[in-house]
Amino acid sequence: MLLSHAFGLFTHPDAEWASIRKEHETPRRVYVAYVLLLAAIGPVCAYIATAHLGWTVGNERLIKLTEISAMQLSVLTYLAILVGVFALGYAINWMAKTYGAHEEPNAANGIALAAYSCTPLFLAGFALLYPVPWFNALVFLAAACYGAWLMYDGLPIVMGIPKERAIMYGGALLTVALVILVSTRVGSVILWNSGFGPVFISG
């Protein structure tokens, strides 16, 4: 079962990456059995936290989102995660020849590497059930750092390249990931101006 890889990436990542390369699952299966499930953790927890639990900043009153607004933003976030993982996986495959790896027609290894590297960020979504901004920021920062390390660790194993090339390859991919992140922020501003912005209420 693909979900078993989530635990292995925290306990024995090298062996898990080798297993992932050996399985060589299709992008569709990785998405259906792994990404669609784990990517939902953050949006679902964010919906619960923003619509039902609420949060405070300093000594201010409890703030919540309306249920419709929270649902809209959670669904849009979920879609952005799915697109972002695919875009990163496609970039991994697209850059493969540049760094001596094999470029595949269906980007199977690239999608798998992107999906499994994002595992810490998927699981960090549980932290949103405790809606304290500084706590959430620290958890997601730690998850992003471990995710970046997982990608660097997995590149030579999954893509079959020398380890010394993984540094440059990983650096290029982190740049792509930042571009994707900035694009989602810009997209958020556009959507908020189009009527999908958050609607706040007092708790």
How does this model look, in words?
The chain has one domain. Helix content is 73%, strand content 3%. It contains nine helices and two strands. It has helices spanning 4-11, 13-23, 27-38, 41-53, 67-94, 108-117, 119-124, 133-158, 163-196; strands spanning 63-65, 200-202. It starts with a helix and ends with a strand.
The gist of it:
This protein has 203 residues and is mainly α. The chain is built from nine helices and two strands.
Low-confidence stretches: none
The neighbouring-strand order within the major sheet is: 1-2
Dominant shape: elongated
End-to-end Cα distance, whole Å, is 42 Å
Helical fraction = over 70%
Overall domain count: 1
Biggest β-sheet strands, sense, barrel: 2 strands, antiparallel
Q: What is the mean pLDDT?
A: 91
Coarse structural class: mainly alpha
In terms of DSSP E residues, the strand content is under 5%
Order of helices and strands: HHHHEHHHHHE
**How many extended strands?**
2
Query: How many DSSP H or I helices?
Result: 9
Using only CA atoms, what is the Rg?
Answer: 18 Å
